Amino acid sequence: MRGINRINKMLEVPKEAYTNEPKITITGFNELVIENYKGILEYEDYHIKLSTYIGCININGFNLKLDKMTEDCLKIIGKIESLDIERQVD
User: In whole angstroms, what separates CA 19 from the centre of its chain?
Assistant: First the structure.
């Protein structure tokens, strides 16, 4: 695995492309994209809780909606107030 990581770094491959670590992209206060999630644990228009390979991600706000969703990526829109991460203890 160490050799693969070295090759990926030399080729400048983003870490989230070859690991299961989530990548979170926030655009202003109205759009959030999360890559490498496992599942949706809670879904309300004011709170969304996602499971990832390293813990849970909580998104709080108003009028939250799942705009687009694939097997490993989802886009949330609405008025995002806060985001917190619960780290998984090994």
Answer: 13
